[in-house]
């Protein structure tokens, strides 16, 4: 019996362990449930992140996957060297004018008109250098017309955002250009405000207590040249009274060669408001070689030094004599202004120089302002028989003489201070 039982036991014992399929599948599900997935995706599409239980460190593979997901969520930092610096990277766009496009002609027709400039507050700048100077000084561009995309790419990209860029044919720009050799780019800018402008640091550092007042200057070329001299001499401000040509007229801009963006210019002033723009204790000096009053005030030998201009030019000063209708006698009624040579010291206080136009000369208002501030008439000697100097030349001589006197005065003051 024992032998039979033993045989049956041997017969029922399998030679190899048999694993049922249901047991194997159950173990797989158990292992799956023990894992801590980074995300659980439900059939509805909802995604739930699961954090590892406290005190339990996730495996390296899961931890690295989590870090990778976080990196994908955060925006990649752009190195400073890869910030948008080119025209293409900034995403700027331009329009190409098709045949029959009237935008250039319509703008040019009105922007060259002084009433439009004063009413709309817009000016026209032409040429790459002048436009670059304007942008650097903080002038606000509105529209650019250009014939080659390279001209726009030369400009700072941060200044072109929100500006209308229109590519036109070079022939169209040439038709409207005031330059002998058009440069293929024109810009419409908001009329600059001297208070909001950013003038060059070098210019501000060399600024002098010397101002220029333009009186009845009608020639655009002369005014542009005078503005260049004012910027070169270091004038702190330029005032233009009513009756002068517009400082933002295209010919003045061309002759100024960028001086408009180097020295503050205040345009179209009434004489009553001029003192408001002058520093305290400013003395006003009038550049005027002509006139009966100047002849009477100079010495007997003045004509030998060329201090007296042609008497025919004195007729331009109609205000210098007044005829009494009852007696028929003439009497002078000009302000009492002393006359002196331009090279004598006249820069003791902040000084303002009045330059008049060649046709109309200085106004009576300028002489009255000079008298009220304790100023004088400045005479530049010329050879007898020679007409008065060109306005731009006279302004240059006086401004640079004023600069020389201020520099000498500063050197003496510095030397006296060091000696004490």
From TrEMBL:
UniProtKB keywords: Methyltransferase, rRNA processing, Transferase
One Gene Ontology term of the molecular function aspect: RNA binding
Region of interest called Disordered, as start-end residue ranges on this chain: 47-88
Domain RNA 2-O ribose methyltransferase substrate binding: 124-195
Keyword Methyltransferase found: yes
Superkingdom as given in the UniProt entry: Eukaryota
GO cellular component terms, semicolon-separated: mitochondrial matrix
Pfam family, one: MRM3-like_sub_bind
Composition-biased stretches (Basic and acidic residues): 61-72
UniProt cross-references to SUPFAM superfamilies, sorted A to Z: alpha/beta knot, L30e-like
UniProt entry tagged with the keyword DNA-binding: no
PANTHER family, A to Z: RRNA METHYLTRANSFERASE 3 (PTHR43191), RRNA METHYLTRANSFERASE 3, MITOCHONDRIAL (PTHR43191:SF2)
UniProt family annotation: Belongs to the class IV-like SAM-binding methyltransferase superfamily. RNA methyltransferase TrmH family.
Protein name, per record: Mitochondrial rRNA methyltransferase 3
Organism the protein comes from: Equus asinus (Donkey)
Organism ancestry: Eukaryota, Metazoa, Chordata, Craniata, Vertebrata
